Here is the input.
Amino acid sequence: MFQHTIPLPGRPGDKLEWGNLSKAGPAFVIASAAVTDNHPLMVITPDSASANRLEEELAFFLAGNESIKVQQMPDWEILPYDTFSPHQDIISRRLSTLYQLPESASSDTKTILIVPVSTLLHRLCPKSFLLGNCLSLRPGERFIIDERRSQFEQAGYRCVDSVMEHGEFAVRGSIVDVFPMGTDIPYRIDLFDDEIESLRTFDPETQRSTDVVPEIHLLPGHEFPMDKQGREQFRSHFRDAFDVNHRDCPVYQDIGEGIISPGIEYYLPLFFKETETATLFDYLPEQTRILVYEAMNPALDHYYSDVQARYENRRVDPTRPLLPPARVVMPPDEFFSRLND
Here is the structure.
């Protein structure tokens, strides 16, 4: 199918335009470029609908090619400054994508990352937080239940009776169940005294153990820290950012008590120093090639205007003060500066 080499820029900073591409033409060219080029690719689309369509078209053109992985950076699927949070499955997929991106350049499998421009604009946790707060467990390791329970809770996992979805764990005698973020299945940790005897997967519907696994990896439960230091840093930055009576603010009080307040995602920068927050650009390998749909610019301006409008409409509530748009998402000028880099 891919008999011709698709021309690509030769040096960082070079730009190249492909024209007269209709219907599935962009997907065909992107798939061709992925087959003939050794670099990771990121494709910026105008919106989630075009991202979903492109993902399906690439899957068709690359069917049977196991050396190329197509994935989409999931959007939160909530409106700017909403008062509820994304589904746990979305958070899990986002964390998994961010965790894998920095290593994608050295992997045997090439990556095509698809991202809607509205998703790309959002500020993220720094790489140091995500990569530095992962936990690996293997049989034979010590496992003190009370210590691990505290560790899971500080990582943002919820203690429940029966594990059913991402970000949950349960303790039943010498058995600990956990559904790590970024995985498709939950795991069962069988203990013998204070040592891990075995690790197995299990079916959350039947709660029956299935396959033995050699190790499991746990990503943080959220894109922000919920340990004592992270919560104290949030509260300190909240007081500095807003001239309000913080005791009347449910978000401030919830975080102080270790409760993940609905809509906390739009306060994410307060968990970190202002200079520490990252963007998706910071997670990309250096040699990533970026492909941009021409229709991206109107979508970018429209989304940023929407963020500004919702900020102006909702900022009047003194019990829920809002961070200005530039603290939450990249303004267009900053976005294009990062893109040009």
